[in-house]
Amino acid sequence: MTFDVSRLVDLENGLIDRRIFSDAEIYDAEMDRIFRRTWLALGHESEIAETNDFFTTWMGADPVIVSRTAQGIKVMLNMCRHRGGTVCRVDRGNAKLFLCPYHGWSYNPDGTLKVVPGLEADYRHGIDPTQWGLLEAPRVATYKGLIFASWNPEVEPLEEFLGDARFYLDCLLDRVEGGTELVGGMRRWIIPTNWKHAAENFVGDSYHAAATHASIMRVPGLEGAGGRVKDVVGYQAALDNGHGVGMWMASEDNARGGYGHLAGIDDYLKSIQDQLVAKLGELRATRLTPVHATIFPNFSIEFPFASLHIWHPRGPLKTEVRDLTIVDKAMPAEMKDMLRRHCMLRQGPAGTWEQDDMDNWSQTTYSSLSPTARGLMANYQMGMGHEHTRDDIPGRIDNKSSDINQRNMYARWAELMAMDPPPPQVPAACRSHSGEISR
Amino acid sequence: MSAPSQDLLARMALTFEAQQFLYAEARLLDTQNYKAWLELVTDDIHYWAPVVESRERRHRAGHYVAAADESAYFDDTRATLGMRVARLGFPGAWAEVPPSRMTRLISNVEVGEQGAEDIPVRSCFYLFRSRLETEEDSYHGVREDVLRRVDGELRLARRKIIFAQSVLTARSITTFL
Ligand code: FES
Ligand SMILES: [Fe+2]
After folding, report:
1. Any idea which ligand is nearest the CA of A104?
2. Percent of chain A having pLDDT more than 70?
3. Are A127 and A168 contained in the same domain?
């Protein structure tokens, strides 16, 4: 390793070396040290409701299959163990087997090896099928509908990883009986940006809204899309493991309402008011609204009516977004449809909000290719020294405009980048001689 | 050789008219004359670009175009198109600062059976955009339109845009297809 993490991230002074947004060696280390160590969000259980349903996605730079088996959800590397063919070439479906098109090895939905053509006639000495199944992520878990997996067998329990973020996530995932489901389909596109510029924007960058989204504020019908904005105070909460949430807190007398621009939402919330209070308590049911969050490293949420963004790294200068829309399962159909259209207008590559974000992130990423600019540290100093705690909400708290959550995210980034990568999870018979997964 | 039938002549005239409409529309979009473009759409327009996913072959030709209640890049009414156009008119719409230079190629125009009012028209599009120095994005696919004659003039009443890409390689869509 030729980079020194402690020189790249100087959080005591709120400074970050721009090199981390474009350097190929740092990127490779992130894939090993961060994306192979922590939990990663993959999708929602409603995407694989039936046995043998699957979808394909990414864990960092690893292509994976997420499959519903009789034994629960399995996550497997989408790579034939013979010579590396892609065993599943489609986005989603229902499959009784995954067949490698190259030499015809096939695998069961749980990844176990099913058929090796010519096992006796051609191999002659045979091979041990238990050693040659699809490589399985050792840890898979769900939190209130969301599917996570990790390559790290030693990773902490998912609930512990999410920690206090659950207090805020539950405002979306557990506000009504029946939980949530995804709107069908996903928007995917490639942004010319480093994945961290997307993650850090959602983790705590409320500051950007006035400038970046200046055009939104001028257009009736678009301007209120972020939720209740009248008579509210905003906060950021920096949480363990690098997560962060931004939120609005309404005053006691403005406790209800404020989503007037979303037809029928105030009535819907009124109709589930008893459940909200029972599930979330008075504060979260009536006054507190999370607005944006990142679950470190690459899972972001736009609350309260609601988009999930997973930022898949595609090299230091590219990020593939998987943009999912989430609604309460129990919502009336026309409410689901209204919120779906709300998310379609606001998010995605054509999103009236999102397109200007992406334009800025590509500028901030590409500026880090400038040799002169690289020597200049980026400023993450806003609100330094003003962190505090509150009795009513968890986390280290600061004003809505503050870099507290970004500093917290990069502190976790630096901590993981300074650690050795987790050991490989490869069956003994086919480990490389160095015992390492080489790039 | 016998003279073309009346029927064929009528179809040629209608096809020509539809093509001219689509070309004029493309020129307004290329030049970002969005206010004039809005004049070409009906008040009840559904402007829609459902997402596309890869599925197994036994699913419709190997790809899946999302249904009306699923995800889309655009799912707009006349009102929300108006909001998008108004927003693009402000100096703070950064993804269009400075504006993109755009070229739309519209081709393979096929006019379907004309109903009482509505004329189904299918066309292929290729949009190339260049911005700043070397920023480039391209978009291609098929459009299934319904044109309607209003006071003698053609208007766009429905548009379904089906991108060929399931993962768009374009960073954003800051215009209309
Ligand atoms: S690479 Fe898959 S069967 Fe040979
Ligand atoms: Fe933003």
Report:
1. 1
2. 93
3. no
Contact residues for B77 (Cβ-Cβ < 8 A; gap 6+):
B45, B46, B47
Give the start-end residues of each E strand in A251-287.
none
Q: Where are the domains of chain B?
A: 6-163
Residue A53 belongs to domain with CATH number: 2.102.10.10
A132 lines ligand 1 (CB under 6 A): no
pTM: 0.95
Residues of chain B predicted below pLDDT 50: none
A336-356 pLDDT, tens per residue?
999 999 999 999 999 999 999
For A190, the closest of B50, B83, B169 (CB atoms) is: B169
Looking at the domain that runs over B6-163, which CATH code has it been given? 3.10.450.50
The DSSP call for residue A245 is E
Parallel/antiparallel/unpaired status of strands B63-65 and B72-76:
unpaired
Residues forming beta bridges with residue A368, ordered by sequence position: none
**Contact flag A356-B71 (C-beta cutoff 8 Å):** no
Mutation choice for B interface testing from A46, A52, A87, A91 by most B CBs within 10 A: A91
**Partner A contacted by B55 (CB < 8 A):** yes
ipTM value for the complex: 0.95
B75–A344 C-beta distance less than 8 A = yes
pLDDT in tens, B63-95: 899 999 999 999 999 999 999 999 999 989 999
The residue type at A16: I
Q: Are residues A178 and A114 both part of a single domain?
A: no
Q: How far is A172 from chain B (nearest CA, A)?
A: 19
Interface of A with B in 215-234 (CB under 8 A): 215-216, 218-222
User: Does A16 reside within a domain?
Assistant: no
Q: Give the residue, by CA position, lying nearest to ligand 1 atom 4.
A: A103
**Residues A356, B95: C-beta atoms closer than 8 Å:** yes
Cα–Cα distance, A360 to A368 (Å, whole number): 13
Per the structure block, which two tokens stand in for A437?
A: 């997964």
Do A125 and A171 lie in one domain? The reply is no
Answer yes or no: do A179 and A211 share one domain: yes
Is residue A154 assigned to a domain? no
Minimum-distance ligand 1 atom for the alpha carbon of A104: 3
Give yes or no for residue A272 CB within 6 A of ligand 1. no
A291 lies in some domain = yes
Biggest CA-to-CA distance, chain A: 79
Same domain, yes or no: A169 and A237: yes
Range of the domain at A347: 164-417
Partner residues linked to A237 by β-bridges: A245, A397
- Among A74, A311, A349, A20, smallest CA distance to A189 is for A349
A105 lines ligand 1 (CB under 6 A): yes
